[in-house]
UniProtKB/TrEMBL annotation:
It comes from Stenotrophomonas ginsengisoli. Keywords: Methyltransferase, Restriction system, S-adenosyl-L-methionine, Transferase. Its EC number is 2.1.1.72. Residues 13-140 form the N6 adenine-specific DNA methyltransferase N-terminal domain. It comes from the Bacteria. It holds the Pfam family N6_Mtase. Belongs to the N(4)/N(6)-methyltransferase family. Residues 152-451 form the DNA methylase adenine-specific domain. PROSITE patterns: N6_MTASE (PS00092). InterPro entries: D12N6_MeTrfase_N (IPR022749), DNA_Adenine_Mtase (IPR051537), DNA_methylase_A-5 (IPR003356), DNA_methylase_N6_adenine_CS (IPR002052), SAM-dependent_MTases_sf (IPR029063), T1MK-like_N_sf (IPR038333). One of its GO terms (biological process) is DNA restriction-modification system. This is site-specific DNA-methyltransferase (adenine-specific). One of its GO terms (molecular function) is N-methyltransferase activity. Coiled coil: none annotated.
Length: 482
């Protein structure tokens, strides 16, 4: 039923000239789903208050509640034929609804409250529907979705994840929000979070790491206290870009986190020296953006200055970990071998302040359309690195859009990593053998036969001249026989 509903939403959106791509579809679906979810939750909270003999005050004033403008019904439960539509509906959404919802950000006391998140979402997103008739069709489809059960949320979350994944084919920005879920699950299985620990992603995008960590930790036998811990004080994220922030909040909600602790902010604008013990976390899981670059004033927040965004994030993540905390971070493989000062200093910092116990070397095609090779760094904060265990992932095929990474591809890595066993694809590097001038951590599998050294240009010319001389001698012999 939900899949049909999402397909019908897509068909309706294609008829609106204001919606041009999967990016637009995901953005517009997000704010509509959020308001429907909020309405369902308000009804649930009202019922709980009534059972306890308490009064419940709805978050939204009557004109802005879902049932009054989005899906008004007649006495027999049918859609009201007099509901706003056409230009009247667009004028209401743009001129009244969005400004009202945006005002929640200024009236809220805490950035972690649901009220603040309502205001933040609608301050950063715009209604792109131009036809009130198309919007009316979509509203009636969204109204059929029900967030009242965990099964419904699970199915909706799968569909929403599929929508986010499709964004990667809609433009360069889409791919920034999606990390292959099998890779995320493998990272989580290595880090092994437990309930009571805090998990942080300072570049959370669509919150894939936090959603998968929630799925890893949730169980049917959790106590009420454990469930409350998961809901309120386990998952923390920050995201700079508006669309990604909205996607992340909605993704966590659909996975079952009612009021996600995601903040819309530029993580790198925080000075590393201002991070206190209370700001630190037990676990960092992240895939920070590659390339890019931050302004000079942002780089001043870091002891190791760099125009590479991922290098700034790695410094941030090390600082955000508690002593004994565990990190798993995706980064370009060139970080292991670059010879610029920032790369060398950052490798030295990582090896001296953390135990970089595992490096997972990912094959080309792991990130669809990214065009770069990546590695995953697994490290524990608080003790220097003595040995690094490498695993070179080889799925035995070329990865791509029609042949993506899957969980089975990573099964051997997870099995061997527990004991850091050597194999044809894994080996151990002793840090004592690293050149302290470069701190080079390049992936060099000692089990792979070395390619025969290429001849020098001088040797090639000498060989060619020798063959020419041999050929000339043979021709002279033939001439003598004639």
């Amino acid at each position: 039923m939900f899949e049909n509903a999402f397909n019908n939403i897509d068909r309706a959106m294609r008829n609106d000239e204001g919606l041009a791509s999967e990016l637009d579809y995901a953005e517009q679906t997000s704010w509509l789903l959020f308001l429907k979810y909020l309405d369902d939750m308000e009804h649930e909270w009202a019922d709980e208050a009534e059972l306890q003999g308490d009064d419940y005050t709805p978050l939204l004033d009557p004109p802005y509640r879902w049932g009054n403008w989005a899906a008004p019904k007649t006495a027999d439960g049918q859609f009201d034929p007099n509901a706003l539509t056409g230009k009247d509906l667009i004028d209401f959404v743009n001129g009244e609804l969005f400004p009202y919802l945006k005002s929640f950000r200024d009236s809220s006391d805490s950035a972690d409250s649901l009220e603040y998140k309502i205001g933040e979402i609608f301050a950063e997103i715009a209604n792109r529907f131009r036809s009130g008739y198309t919007l009316r069709d979509v509203l009636e489809i969204v109204d059929t979705l029900n967030f009242g059960s965990s099964q419904a949320k699970h199915e909706l979350s799968d569909l929403y994840e599929t929508r986010i994944k499709r964004m990667g084919n809609a433009g360069r920005n889409g791919g920034e929000y999606y990390t292959p879920r099998p890779l995320i699950r493998a990272m989580i299985q290595v880090v092994k979070p437990v309930i009571g620990e805090t998990i942080y992603d300072g570049a959370c995008g669509s919150a894939g790491f936090l959603c998968e960590a929630f799925d890893y930790l949730r169980r049917d036998d959790l106590s009420a206290t454990q469930w409350d811990t998961l809901q309120t004080c386990t998952f923390y994220g920050q995201e700079k870009k508006s669309l990604a922030y909205v996607l992340g909040v909605m993704n966590l909600i659909l996975h079952g986190v009612d009021a996600p602790n995601i903040r819309h902010t530029n993580t790198l604008a925080e000075n590393l020296m201002d991070i206190q013990q209370a700001d630190r976390h037990d676990i960092v899981l992240a895939n920070p953006p590659f390339g890019g670059g931050e302004r000079k004033e942002v780089q001043q927040n870091f002891p190791i200055k760099s125009g590479e965004t991922a290098y700034l994030f790695l410094q941030h993540f090390i600082r955000k970990l508690k002593a004994g905390g565990r990190g798993a971070v995706v980064i370009k493989n060139t970080f292991l071998s670059n010879t610029d000062n920032a790369s060398i200093e950052l490798r030295k910092e990582l090896l001296s302040s953390c135990n970089l116990h595992t490096v997972l070397d990912c094959p080309s095609g792991t990130f669809q359309g990214a065009g770069v090779k990546t590695v995953v760094l697994f490290f524990d904060k608080g003790a220097p690195t003595r040995k690094v265990w490498y695993y070179q992932l080889d799925p035995g095929r070329s990865l791509g859009k029609t042949n993506p990474l899957n969980d089975a591809d990573l099964a051997e890595f997870i099995a061997l990593q527990a004991d850091k066993a050597d194999s044809a694809n894994s080996w151990t590097l002793d840090v004592e053998n690293i050149d302290p001038a470069t701190w080079d951590l390049s992936v060099k599998n000692p089990n792979t036969p070395e390619a025969e050294a290429l001849r020098s240009p001088e040797q090639i010319i000498a060989d060619m001249l020798a063959r020419d001389a041999e050929t000339a001698a043979l021709l002279e012999e033939v001439r003598g026989l004639l």
